[in-house]
């Protein structure tokens, strides 16, 4: 019998599948990371059984190379479990526990199997441990990738969400900016606003920066470029909501906003915009 | 000058510039800066971090919470191993840019802080240190 590597797992997987499955599930349910609220027990059971089957086939192939093609089904299965856990909201630790909780039940069976041969037992325990560590690492990597792409997608969604251009009045648009304007966001915001100006044929756009925590030269430059581009399209921009700390910083930076109409508040900017379009706000006196 | 604590932040991407602003905000609040001073040092940090990234090809920021007598301050050191600046005086001049910027970042961060020092060697790199006191 070949007792090098993790081939000693083979008799165990073949003969003790149901014991192993039961003990493994018990171990997972006992772990502090167990989340019955996120995964049903029968779903967990199916995943565990599928994994043990795939593992058995990979071990039977005799290949020790976890990255090789014989292990592809095992990797695919782990990747899909890992991805679904990532989406279900499991933590990294909870996801990796799927693999690491298999150690103890496997070691117990190895001990029974090789009780008479301490040397082989030590070898097999070591090889199995290495194998599970590598599979665990793989699970963590896939999990991380899933979370990363999830976060990236959310960021992109937020990018869209956070730049709503609203129509305040006939010919008057408003863009309330919230958060820091980084290059990517500034670009989206600028394009979005210019697009809306064209679509609505608006003459005035109010850019409100009450929600912008800091304004550095890059942000200022993007803002000035937006104002200039809007002007070329026949729309005037009013910048409102410049808070005292931002005003002071802009002055120290040396950014020149003198060519841009500014107003303290969005309300002031709106009144100015109305005036420009020929409207006036009056309080009705009739019926008093 | 006693240093109460310090930390290093890598500057390799746009996201790192955001991280720089965040840590400077937290530390300047810790130094009991008012809103105006917070905004000033954060803005200076943003400028210098972007220069480190854009012209220095990346580097890091070393941040220190310092104390002198009863007043606290935040000291920031930006370092890169980029091309360096041949003419520092020109780089500091308002409106000078070798890229597509406004050319206001370097001079602006000098005006936004209390102490400003720049050390640059062509072919070796650039180090800019600024300190803001409460
Ligand atoms: N770390 C650096 N390494 C090399 N050159 C630098 C570095 N920092 C600044 N410079 C040079 O100094 C010039 C002026 O910098 P400054 O920050 O004032 O303006 P800018 O970055 O070009 O534009 P802005 O900061 O207004 O967006 C830069 O264009 C660049 O040539
Ligand atoms: Mg700059």
Q: Which keywords apply here?
A:
heterodimer, A: 288 residues, Globin-like, Transcription Regulator spoIIAA, B: 134 residues, alpha+beta, Heat Shock Protein 90, five-stranded antiparallel β-sheet, 4 helices, 5 strands, binds adenosine-5'-triphosphate, binds magnesium ion, STAS_dom_sf (chain A)
Strand content of chain B: 25-35%
CATH topology of the largest domain in chain A: Globin-like
Overall tally of structural domains of chain B = 1
CATH topological fold name of chain B:
Heat Shock Protein 90
CATH architecture of the largest domain in chain A: Orthogonal Bundle
What is shown here, in short?
The complex is a heterodimer of chains A (about 290) and B (about 130). Chain A is an alpha/beta fold. Chain A has helices at about 10-15, 15-30, 40-60, 70-90, 90-100, 105-115, 120-160, 185-200, 215-230, 245-255, 265-275, and strands at about 165-170, 170-180, 205-210, 235-240, 260-265.
Descriptive notes:
Chain A: Keywords: Phosphoprotein. Chain A: It comes from Limnoglobus roseus. Chain A: Residues 162-273 form the STAS domain. The complex is a heterodimer of chains A (288) and B (134). Chain A is of the alpha/beta class and 288 residues long. Chain A has 2 domains: 9-158, Globin-like (Orthogonal Bundle), CATH 1.10.490.130; 166-276, Transcription Regulator spoIIAA (2-Layer Sandwich). In chain A, 61% of the residues lie in helices and 9% in strands. A 5-stranded mixed sheet of chain A has the order 1-2-3-4-5, sandwiched between helices. In chain A, strand 1 and strand 2 (172-178) form a beta hairpin. In chain A, helix 1 (9-15) crosses helix 3 (41-60), helix 2 (17-30) crosses helix 3 (41-60) and helix 6 (103-113) packs antiparallel against helix 7 (118-161). The model of chain A has no long low-confidence stretch (mean pLDDT 88). Chain B is α+β, with helices and mostly antiparallel strands. Chain B has one domain: 2-Layer Sandwich (Heat Shock Protein 90). Chain B is 37% helix and 34% strand. Chain B has helices spanning 14-30, 35-54, 88-92, 105-112; strands at residues 3-11, 59-68, 71-80, 115-121, 125-133. A 5-stranded antiparallel sheet of chain B has the order 1-2-3-5-4, covered by helices on one side. In chain B, a hairpin with a 2-residue loop joins strand 2 and strand 3. The longest helix of chain B is centred in the first third of the chain and has 20 residues, at 35-54. Chain B is globular and about 40 Å long. The relative contact order of chain B is 0.21. Chains A and B meet through helix 9 and helix 10 of A and helix 1, helix 2 and helix 4 of B. Magnesium ion binds at residues 47, 50-51, 101, 105 of chain B.
